[in-house]
Amino acid sequence: MQLKKILPLAALAVALPTLGMAQEAEAVAEAAPDVLETVAALNTEMVFIMNSLLFLIGGFLVFFMAAGFCMLETGLVRSKNATMQATKNVALFSLAAIAYFIVGFNLMYPGDWVIEGWLGGISPTVLEPVGVELADVDDVEYASIGSDFIFQLMFCAAVASIVSGAVAERIKLWPFLIFVVILTGIIYPIQASWSWGEGFLDEMGFSDFAGSSIVHAAGGWAALAGVLVLGARYGKYGKDGKITVMPGSNLPLATLGMFILWLGWFGFNGGSQLAMGTISDVADVSRIFANTNTAASGGAVAALILSTVLYKKPDLTMVLNGALAGLVSITAEPLTPSLGAATLIGAVGGVIVVFTVPLLDKLKIDDVVGAIPVHLFAGLWGTMAVPLTNSDASFGTQFVGMALIGAFMFAASLVVWLILKAVMGIRVSDEDQVTGLDKTEMGMEAYPEFGNT
Amino acid sequence: MQLKKILPLAALAVALPTLGMAQEAEAVAEAAPDVLETVAALNTEMVFIMNSLLFLIGGFLVFFMAAGFCMLETGLVRSKNATMQATKNVALFSLAAIAYFIVGFNLMYPGDWVIEGWLGGISPTVLEPVGVELADVDDVEYASIGSDFIFQLMFCAAVASIVSGAVAERIKLWPFLIFVVILTGIIYPIQASWSWGEGFLDEMGFSDFAGSSIVHAAGGWAALAGVLVLGARYGKYGKDGKITVMPGSNLPLATLGMFILWLGWFGFNGGSQLAMGTISDVADVSRIFANTNTAASGGAVAALILSTVLYKKPDLTMVLNGALAGLVSITAEPLTPSLGAATLIGAVGGVIVVFTVPLLDKLKIDDVVGAIPVHLFAGLWGTMAVPLTNSDASFGTQFVGMALIGAFMFAASLVVWLILKAVMGIRVSDEDQVTGLDKTEMGMEAYPEFGNT
Amino acid sequence: MQLKKILPLAALAVALPTLGMAQEAEAVAEAAPDVLETVAALNTEMVFIMNSLLFLIGGFLVFFMAAGFCMLETGLVRSKNATMQATKNVALFSLAAIAYFIVGFNLMYPGDWVIEGWLGGISPTVLEPVGVELADVDDVEYASIGSDFIFQLMFCAAVASIVSGAVAERIKLWPFLIFVVILTGIIYPIQASWSWGEGFLDEMGFSDFAGSSIVHAAGGWAALAGVLVLGARYGKYGKDGKITVMPGSNLPLATLGMFILWLGWFGFNGGSQLAMGTISDVADVSRIFANTNTAASGGAVAALILSTVLYKKPDLTMVLNGALAGLVSITAEPLTPSLGAATLIGAVGGVIVVFTVPLLDKLKIDDVVGAIPVHLFAGLWGTMAVPLTNSDASFGTQFVGMALIGAFMFAASLVVWLILKAVMGIRVSDEDQVTGLDKTEMGMEAYPEFGNT
């Protein structure tokens, strides 16, 4: 950091005591501008470095959520569809990464708007040049573009991961992946720009710290549209109203997925402070870590107790989804709540999951992993809970933001799903569903030696 | 960081060269107090930020150990109990998080003592206000409360995770969880305050850097009390002295758990330096990383070689537990040893595991995952090994601390276990153990499609 | 950080405004040398801290790659060999950690050369003393030795992990581990010192940022030598040219392994910037994160599309290896490419995998997990791709470096493998391969309750 400038000053510091007082004063006066400049530069550099570092740490943590979603979903599908589910998760992340750099990032953070506040322009992401210097950086109080890009990309990919779980076990690979490209390259970035790209929702005062609505409910809406267009898995809902339970094939793996998601959420919410270069920012990041963790705990405990009360026996999948719903619930405002409030906000999320998972089944909406209860319903709750602890937010604005995001995400997704259905078909045949997607679509079993019936 | 103060200085720096020498000297003299203040503030902020960041990174790494324990234990139980084991691990962490914020943290780090040095007071954790400033922070040389809280919480939860493995496959869910709440809310915080809350053990000079005794042996003592009250799994020890081997159902998952724990240990020991804002501190954290890693390696290699020598064939579970025992062994003093000494300290841990796992079986103490050899026995060894490389510690004081911690943790846990046994029963019936806890207690199988006999 | 020095200055700052102007000027003049020294020291400390922190974060991320390799390989072998594969992975990392500190690190970063530029000297690693101060640190612009050691160790261990996958399912445990000790203690460090220890390849201008050749192709060459000496698995290649497919037993686990490797690669490539204490360095680390991620995506997508086109159905193992090949390909130069170029460089890696996996089978080179296509072939491509985006590198020098590294790694490994074969035998008997290494060599099954035929 500016070492060239500092080293002569250090040499001067060594020389000074040997001079007389008058000479000394003169030397100091000469050196002063450099000292002042150096201190200011040091400060600027440090803020820039710490902010970038927050994005990088947040980035790799949220990246790992892709693995968390993959393990959760792969553990919750039947083993005959597990290879397909893993394939979808790796592919969706990879395609999101490419779509987001080619179109999404600059659409979401528009330098130039096509329609002011509503729609950005299209251009691929260009990083800062190699070895960028203080003087070259546009906004020196902020962070490196690369670190910001990597952090934001991970949020975009998470939206697609949410969809993947809900539509599992009967969607074809390629139409799903085409949907992912459109979702991550265009639909999500446009919507997210309204709030995080300094668009009209931001201007209105809509408050969604790390994305209960912008990311989680958004993904949930896209998933809901997909599930409705796609229909339920073959055999899930009998004509007599009988619901067939199709238990996940590997609950330990699903549990691992949940833990990885929880881990990643420290980056998801903590990184959304967007700055770590002052006492104030780092203390806020710390608050966010603590609140995020306790909200997840609240969600898990609430789901554990409630599922035991309702069904006599504790239900692991409810506990896992309860923790995740707690995390989604706190995501809109992880900073302002006290630890107690955060626990309660998370606990409500857990309660929502326990009540809405069976509700969806009653409505014959077949969401394989519970993505809609966790991400959509808890996301809506989290969005509306912001004004409870943050007096800068209002219920009215929260509702408007939540509704507009939902309307757009659902409608845009629905259109794309319907086109895909019309053009190429999105649903695997009933026979192939019975055989399993791994054999019919992939020709490759997830656990070829184990007795998957 | 204090940008408002620095920017006018920077402006002055630009203006200075245009002034005459006399004016310049005057301007500098006027600016000087600000420069001095700014430099001091910059330094303070940086130390605070770096220390907080260490806690945050350490926090998420140690958080992930909850997943590590869960995978290790779920992989080492039989598949008919795997859902239960996963449920316990998610629930224990969640309950620990809530108990620790409501009671534990302030009991452990008492602002006011109820009995000076022995017992703190009871009050929930209150984080710093949002957007706290330099001037508002109590102890500016330290770190944010939230970051400290999140880091310390993870240690508390680890104590409960240790217990969970030992009592697996025959303990009822709810009594176990009640024990966890008391352990993490009260028993552990009281004990830990003696050393880390500036209590009497700290005053005595007891030295346990990251908790070989305070966390690991403590958890091991609580586990031992539980195992004794609970009794062995049905069928484990025949009347004729025959020991039935009950192999773990998923060794790759257990291996993953071990790796995750090893990863988390970098945060566990490294974060326990408590500071990273000076060359000296960051170099010490680096020493700790290196020693922690090599001690784990020493434990794994020692267990690999010894198990091969003793039993003709290498034993993966011994290798996994050997690595963990190496980690536990170095935890009391990961800073002062050389790399060679750390390797040996860890290797002794690995040897302890290989000898004490069968010993417990001879004593009919049924520890499902080897938690007592790993955390208790290696923890005691680690505690007593401190004076070998740290001349500030003495064998006498180490022994006294170790013994008092052990006596309290064992006695307090025993009382709670006995009360739980008397009041609600803690043991699943033999018939239900044969069927498996997943079916009888949960109604949910971990691997429903795989042929678990 | 230098708080003792700064605090009196801060006191002076408070006192100054109360003095007259003359006294003030005098006081400032007296304080000036301290201010200058303090600012310089603050800057130096910060650079040192941030660089060390980069190594520590990079270190734990790359450590976790050991778990990634272990899960990938354990998921891709048949279940009858899974315990052995897990054992090998834990043991190889542990032995590498010990060998590298006893011999490797100082052989690779030689203070004194035995043969200048070609061969370092032998001595164990000694860390900085506890509580090292600014004045005691040799190279204050750099980072702590411990942090550098831990980071470099993880690269060394990765080389051994690469070998382990290729020779799986038929190699004996102990000869393999002896090979690992020689590889990580001697062969790799000598080779790596040529480039990263300021040896002759570095002087020549050979450019391999994070080790496409130095780490990945190097591991691939060692693996190839092993596979050739060892021969194919029993039953893999029929006399009539028939190739028996031996599918991996747990693809979700392999997928997890791939995700963990991808996560670790942020540390692998990002940490190889070696510095994070300036705007320029942290922005470069950010570029590297972004390029590393997009190259992996490019590799996965290319393998997905190409495998579908060639074989009609998408192949998950190709997608996993495609992503890894993308990561290996970008490793030689993750800094200079644009995002688009990084995507293409990674995509070529994915294409290489899809074409060379069947090619090896045609040549009857039995690489169980595809380590040679991923690490060797994509590593060579990555090395030769450097000049495409980095004008400081030349194709000629890249080729020479790549060839010399390859020749040495292959030859040295071959000699060791041949000696091990002659002295103790390295191959498990055909009968025992049929039964599985877990039963015959370990006496311990990975999934004892599941129907592994």
Describe this structure in words.
Three copies of one chain form a homotrimer. Chain A is mainly α. The first copy, chain A, is 71% helix and 1% strand. The first copy, chain A, has helices spanning 3-15, 21-76, 82-108, 145-166, 173-196, 200-204, 212-230, 251-271, 279-311, 316-331, 339-362, 371-389, 395-424, 430-435, 437-442; strands at 113-115, 119-120. A two-stranded antiparallel sheet of chain A has the order 1-2. In chain A, 69% of the residues are buried.
Write the layout of secondary structure elements.
3 copies of one chain form a homotrimer.
Chain A: H1 3-15, H2 21-76, H3 82-108, E1 113-115, E2 119-120, H4 145-166, H5 173-196, H6 200-204, H7 212-230, H8 251-271, H9 279-311, H10 316-331, H11 339-362, H12 371-389, H13 395-424, H14 430-435, H15 437-442
Antiparallel strand pairs in A: 1-2
Spell the H/E element sequence of chain A. HHHEEHHHHHHHHHHHH
Number of helices of chain A: 15
End-to-end CA span of chain A: 63 Å
Mean pLDDT across the residues of chain A is 92
User: Spans of chain A with pLDDT under 50 lasting ≥5 residues?
Assistant: 1-8
Rg of chain A over CA atoms, rounded to whole Å, is 25 Å
Helix content of chain A: over 70%
Q: What's the count of strands of chain A? A: 2
Q: Could you say which structural class the secondary elements and strand pairing of chain A correspond to?
A: mainly alpha
- Major β-sheet annotation of chain A: 2 strands, antiparallel
Shape of chain A: globular
Oligomer: homotrimer
Proportion of beta-strand residues of chain A:
under 5%
Strand order of the largest sheet of chain A: 1-2
